[in-house]
Amino acid sequence: MIVNALRNGLGCVIAGVEQMTRPAKKQRSAEVQAQVNEQAAKLALYQFHACPFCIKVRRTLHVLNVPVTLVDAKEPANEKVLIEQGGKRQVPCLRITDDEGNVTWLYESKQIIDYLQNQFAHM
Asked: CB under 8 Å to 72, separation ≥6 — which residues?
């Protein structure tokens, strides 16, 4: 219990520092940003606020200026979806819905960041 409190407290401190030290967002034309927003609407990031790996992914989203829906995986209903549909209770997890409605669950912060870089850095 004490370890969890310390972990959460430290995570909140890290999240606060990250908020204060964020670099500028990627600037795009209005047309290109609209395309990014349309693609981002098909994504959802299941995450915990104080998780360092989630903070790393959120920072990448900020830098790339990709407005992805953030889903709090600590909420029981969201946790249930993550486990039942994604297959495990692990965050960060990016839920990707393609144009045909097929869903892919991408785990591991490095893989998520690589995916985001490949999809949005060139736009």
From this structure: 47, 48, 49, 78
Q: Which residues on adjacent β-strands are paired with residue 46?
A: 71, 93
Tokens linked to 23: 């670099």
Q: Nearest Cα to 92, choosing from 117, 76, 79, 73?
A: 73
H/E element, 14: helix 2-20
User: Would the pTM of this model clear 0.85, i.e. be above it?
Assistant: yes
Q: How far is CA 77 from CA 71, 84, 116, 117, in A?
A: 10, 11, 26, 30
Q: Give the model confidence (pLDDT) of 35-62 as tens digits.
A: 999 999 999 999 999 999 999 999 999 9
Distance, in Å, from the CA atom of 113 to the CA atom of 54, rounded to the nearest integer, reads 10
